[in-house]
Amino acid sequence: METSFSWIDTAIIIAYLATLTGIGIYFSKRQKNLDDFFRAGQTMTWLPIGLSLMAALNSGIDYLMVPSATMKYGLVLLLGSASWFALYPWVSQVTLPFYRRLNFYSAYEYLEERFDVRVRSLAAAIFILWRVGWMATAMYVPCLAINAATAGKVPLIPMIVLLGGVVTIYTMLGGIKAVIWTDVLQFCIMMAGLTATIVVVIANVPGGLGEIWHTAQATGKTTLSSPIPGMAQAGFWEAVHLFFLEPVTMVGILASAVVGRMTVYTSDQVMVQRFQTTRSVKDSRQAFIINAITDAFWMFGLAFVGMAILTYFQHHTLSQDLKPDQIFPSFMSQAFPTGLMGAVIAAILAASLSSIDSAINSCTTVLMTDFYNRYAKHRTIIDERFPHEEQQSQLRLSRWTTVALGILGTTLACNVGKLGNLLELSSKVINLLTGSLFGIYLLGMFTKGASSRGVLIGGL
Questions:
Q1: Which of 56, 177, 312, 376 sits in a 20 to 30 Å window from 302, CA-based?
Q2: How far apart, in Å, are the Cα atoms of 442 and each of 93, 123, 262, 265, 457?
Q3: 13-19 average pLDDT score
Q4: CA distance 44 to 386
Q5: Which of 351, 359, 323 is nearest to 134 (CA)?
Q6: Comparing 12-21, 61-70, 154-163, which segment has the lowest mean pLDDT?
Q7: How far apart are CA 65 and CA 21, in angstroms?
């Protein structure tokens, strides 16, 4: 397969990765204690938190899968963006004030206060297993796509190792501040790459926007829904049966988006910890709004790319052997000019690394808070008033833990291709467990209980 990938694209990618490492080095000198490393001293403002949250929530997998999913199902997928309206009251009035009042480092400290240490440890272990497994996939899939788009000029395993090394270094050195500010940079790169992609697809489609719209209408991709075959003539129970057999429905997409995001913003350490770095609840609420707006723009942009690529392949040959996650790389190899491919590859990497660094830092926080301090030091909470020597000792241990997690995630990423159905099965099991965890949080929040810290728990 021919490709326009050249030394210019390689230079762009190297410069991008070097910049990320530089940010980590810059913030390494500003990590004085555990509060700096895990919560940025609660000094962050709403704009960088909002932009970094958007980058952390979206990975390179979305960059590859959303266009192909739009090609298959159409704009009905965009209904998921409407979930932000339903989510805002829950997050702004319940979860943000709740965690701010408790002032925890880890979301799972609450579970010991509300239930007992066993529930806390189980929830923390589930989170680590989930995030490490997901991290490996988030690193592997974009590298595989880039390998395909460059016709093998970027080798798969060395690329994974390079990315794993870079993300581990800057996360280890700079802590949560480095993660937040690199994610802000990566947000800008993601949006720039998406904009460049939109320009390229429009330029390469005969007839431009008009042709894209015509093709989308002709294939039914502009409709938000289409009648389920046989639904009009079916009885009640048969209609219910047909509805649940349909893979994508408006109700299903909206419900899954609302419940899925409620779970993330209630019990996911990545989100809880990020909001805990802000100066106030007001900053957290404003950050959530920025996150929602930018995420909606991102999803609409990727959906448009999907429709445009669909139109492009009406005029060009598309191999029938391509998997869904290979369609976008195939388009890149055919249509992108020299130089621009490197920029878009950097955008795909930015989407992945912004999620991976958040996962590594959050897992380090959970290991230090919910396991090391809880079991080795017999402390139920981390106290920012620890003696200076203790702070420095735990800061060093936190950095070594970050390195270990980075190595583990990179090793798993190098072997994801060998896991096959086992990876899918483990993902489903962990999703089931995290759903159960969300139920535990709801139970705790809506029933009153005493706290050993003198704070009323639950009863929201």
A1: 177
A2: 14, 14, 10, 12, 12
A3: 86
A4: 22
A5: 359
A6: 61-70
A7: 28
Q: 3-class DSSP state for residue 221?
A: coil
pLDDT tens profile 313-357? 777 766 656 666 677 777 777 777 777 777 788 888 888 888 888
The full DSSP string for 246-261 is -S--HHHHHHHHHHHH
Helix (H) or strand (E) holding 199: helix 156-204
Higher pLDDT, 432 or 33: 33
The b-or-e profile of 291-308 (16+ CB within 10 A means b, else e) is bbebbbebbebbbbbbbb
pTM of the model: 0.82
User: How far, rounded to the nearest angstrom, does the alpha carbon of residue 448 sit from its chain's CA centroid?
Assistant: 33
Q: Pick from 35, 361, 18: which is nearest to 185 by CA?
A: 18
Spatial separation of the C-alpha atoms in residues 141 and 151, rounded to whole Å: 15
Sign of the dihedral defined by the CA atoms of residues 178, 182, 183, 184, in that order: positive
Residue 52 has pLDDT above 70, yes or no: yes
* Radius of gyration, alpha carbons of the chain: 23
pLDDT at site 364 = 93
The per-residue pLDDT for 291 is 93
Residue 75 pLDDT more than 50?
yes
Q: Cβ neighbours of residue 291 under 8 Å, at least 6 residues apart? A: 50, 51, 53, 54, 57
DSSP 170-198: HHHHHHHHHHHHHHHHHHHHHHHHHHHHH
Please enumerate, as own/partner, the contacts of 222-225 that have beta carbons within 8 Å and a separation of 24 or more: 222/74, 222/75, 222/307, 223/74, 223/75, 223/76, 224/74, 224/75, 224/76, 224/78, 224/79, 224/250, 225/76, 225/249, 225/250
